[in-house]
Amino acid sequence: MRIDVWSDVVCPWCYIGKRRLEEALADSGESAEIVWHSFQLDPSSTNDDPRDLPTRLGEKYGRGREWGVQANAHVTEVAAEVGLEYHLDQAKSVNTVDAHRLLHLARDLGDAGEVPADTQGRLKERLLKAYFTDGLPVGDHATLTELATEIGLPAERVREVLAGTTYTDDVAADQAQALAYGANGVPFFVIDEKYGVSGAQPVDVFKEALRRANADRKPVTLITAPGATDGDAECGPDGCPI
């Protein structure tokens, strides 16, 4: 089973959705290849905005700083229910394009066998924890280099990507694909290219989507005539029975 996930590393519901998906997979006994795709919630954000997160949220949605404080408190409580520790009072303003570019690097190196196949997933987890729990500036190149090398990416390749524009088009292509699927927000999950789950839905919703996807992949039940054996009246690569 393959699950494609669009999310941002500064999206609080994306981290919660990740945990709920992981719980659903564990409860269902399913194994899946999870591919992380880029989605920037605010491509215009900068790494040097002096405003704290509640102020930024309140101004973005036109509801004031106090609303931002209450919104952060609510999502922090929900995160705790799935075992996550949020410290949103420490969250730094960042532009996430470079973090997403490194996630593409991790995916490519994993596909090429240069790093373990799960490296992209481990980098995604580390970036989320860095932002939400550790209060680290995940738009800063030095911080990104430290986090990426910590989970096993080659430092030289990381610095090379951050110094240029490699994968910028891939980040944009991911965002365009999400919009083509009809996803205007994240997290957004697509299971086996058939079933979509929008938002950090309850675990039972993920389990139902996994169940349906798994049912679609089960082999058909063969019905044969009494006494017939496998291979009767059918042709294969080696010819046809007479």
Automatic annotation (TrEMBL):
Pfam families reported for this sequence: DSBA
Name recorded for this polypeptide: DsbA family oxidoreductase
Lineage of the species this protein comes from: Bacteria, Bacillati, Actinomycetota, Actinomycetes, Propionibacteriales
Positions of the DSBA-like thioredoxin domain: 3-210
